[in-house]
Amino acid sequence: MQKKQEILTRRGLTLSRQVLSRLRSVGIVVQSSISLEHQQSAGRYVLRGIESGGAVKDFGRYVTFCGPDGEALAYLHPIDAIAFNGVHAVVVAPVLVRVELFRSGRTCQLLITRHKPSNSENHRRPWVENSVLFRGINGFMDASPAGKNESTASQAPQFWTRSGEELPLPFLWTAAVLAAARGVNCVGCSHAHFLVRPSALAMVASGDRA
């Protein structure tokens, strides 16, 4: 069980080979892995992730990232991919929360995980500390897929325990989950749904809502 949990936190949602093959066949590309990188100028380690994914009519998969308190992060740079439903933007930060959502029809799987470098001793390369914040299995999302030039739905998925009690989404990461929900319903997706331009984040931080 512990090994399965470790794989889940490191690699993201565990999907069957059949599902992964179907996603590849329709051109939905998701890079859920997170890498540890060293910034020489700052003398610190950071984490690197890639917001990616999209949808076709019947299913979709999307992964995005936010800060430890659910805050939006500025991307390092966007990625202009040749095909749709692929990679959208690169993010680099000291701590990352990964939000990954998979939709098949109206049924969905959700995984929220937290990642940060461990304390480094004697200038040794740290490892990445991973933890599961939320795991939603076979949830329901009543949304209609939309094309890349249309407005996508932003209804949050719903989850229940095995006994039928509602499993509420953690409030801190609701905005990121809603963005991922838009991503798994964005047919022919060609843009990031949650990572923002550095200039846009600076405007929000300064209180400029114009």
Please summarize what this structure is.
By secondary structure, the chain is α+β, with helices and mostly antiparallel strands.
Q: Could you characterize the architecture of this molecule?
A:
- The chain has 210 residues and is an alpha+beta fold.
- The chain has one domain.
- 18% of the residues lie in helices and 34% in strands.
- The strands form two sheets. Strands 1, 2, 3, 4, 5, 6, 7 and 8 form an eight-stranded antiparallel β-sheet that branches. It has a two-stranded parallel ribbon with strand order 9-10.
- A hairpin with a 2-residue loop joins strand 6 (96-104) and strand 7 (107-117).
- The protein starts with a helix and ends in a 5-residue tail after the last helix.
Identify the overall geometry: globular
- For the secondary structure, the number of strands is 10
Unreliable residue stretches: none
- Number of helical regions: 4
Number of domains: 1
Please write the string of helix (H) and strand (E) elements.
Answer: HHEEEEEEEEEHEH
Helix content range of the residues, please?
Answer: 10-25%
End-to-end distance: 50 Å
Supply Rg. Answer: 17 Å
Which structural class should the secondary elements be placed in?
alpha+beta
